[in-house]
Design goal:
single chain; Alpha-Beta Plaits; two-stranded antiparallel sheet; 4 strands
Length: about 110
């Protein structure tokens, strides 16, 4: 089992989770984070740190799309290990539905 970042991270991109990750398995895109499935050790410390509740265990039902997205983009986006400032409008987008179709960007973000 591993953890995956889901659509509520899009446009919120809180980075509280990256600071607690003992194996630095987070990768950053222009407007969201992903977890590398081969690096995640299933410790679970990141899940409660996410203010947007966007991190889920890959055993939850209906996450097949997010398992694929995390794996695909973790291979091409830069690693992030330090907390960054959240986007100015993060709270506005927290909880919005359909964020992947509206806002997802495949562009890499700024790693550290």
């Amino acid at each position: 089992m591993t953890y995956v970042v889901t659509d509520n991270c899009i446009k919120c991109k809180y980075t509280d989770c990256v600071e607690v990750c003992p194996v630095d398995c987070f990768y950053v895109g222009e407007n969201m984070l992903v977890i590398h499935p081969d690096e995640c050790i299933d410790c679970g410390v990141c899940e409660p740190e996410c203010p947007a509740e966007a991190i889920k265990p890959d055993t939850d039902s209906g996450l097949e799309k997010w398992i694929e997205i995390n794996a695909e983009y973790a291979d091409v986006w830069p690693n992030i290990t330090l907390k960054q400032e959240q986007p100015p409008e993060a709270e506005k987008f927290d909880g919005e539905t359909g964020k992947f179709e509206k806002y997802f960007s495949p562009k890499p973000g700024e790693g550290d």
